[in-house]
Automatic annotation (TrEMBL):
It holds the Pfam family Acetyltransf_3. It comes from Nocardioides flavus (ex Wang et al. 2016). This is N-acetyltransferase. Signal peptide: none annotated. It comes from the Bacteria. SUPFAM superfamilies: Acyl-CoA N-acyltransferases (Nat) (SSF55729). Residues 9-167 form the N-acetyltransferase domain. InterPro entries: Acyl_CoA_acyltransferase, GNAT_dom, Ribosomal_N-acetyltransferase.
Length: 195
């Protein structure tokens, strides 16, 4: 279980009983998320619950993880490992965050905690970050955390009927030394990982 406090934001496991909150988040901010994500249909509680339950099952199988980001009692986003391959010791990391919570460094510090867990606690070798070339905020997170851009896959996935390219960024365990000093604030909070 990953637990992290970042100033007034909290990162922790997103569980099936949070389905109402996740559906509310997608109703309020889905149009913004759907510019870059191939997901849809989470505005309804049943769809949100199914999404969370697939990740809960995947967590039990050591195949994926999903965390919510709360400010106070409001769910404002999430971070995830949509895939973890224990045999090859690889994973993919991703995020979604309401525009009202952006610009505070929450995502960078949350992903840094995920990377600490992946490399230090879980013993993974490689973590990938994938984003559309136009998703500048996502690209900046990868750059800040030291990922290397390895290439761009052409027209990989559809978003609202339009095929999107996908940049592949990667970070190897030997390249990870923690959140860069420039990304830490005096009140940044410390990532905590608990088994």
């Amino acid at each position: 279980m990953l637990s992290l406090q970042i100033d007034d934001a909290r990162l922790s496991d997103l569980e099936p009983w949070h389905a109402d909150q996740l559906a509310g988040l997608f109703r309020a901010h889905g149009a913004d998320f759907y510019d870059w994500l191939p997901w849809e249909g989470f505005e309804e509680v049943a769809g949100a619950r199914g999404f969370i339950e697939r990740f809960a099952q995947g967590r039990g199988e050591d195949a994926r993880r999903l965390y919510g980001i709360w400010i106070g009692d409001e769910l404002v986003g999430g971070t995830l490992f949509p895939s973890i391959n224990a045999r090859s010791r690889t994973a993919e990391a991703g995020v979604f965050l309401a525009s009202s919570a952006r610009g505070r460094g929450i995502v960078t510090r949350a992903v840094a905690a995920m990377l600490d867990w992946a490399f230090v606690e879980r013993g993974l070798h490689r973590v990938e970050w994938r984003c559309a070339p136009g998703n500048v905020a996502s690209r900046r997170v990868a750059q800040r955390l030291g990922f290397t851009h390895e290439g761009t896959l052409r027209e990989v996935f559809p978003v609202r009927e339009e095929r999107q390219d996908l940049e592949v960024w990667a970070l190897l365990s030997r390249e990870w030394s923690g959140l860069p000093t420039a990304g830490r604030g005096a009140a940044a909070g410390k990532p905590g990982v608990v088994q």
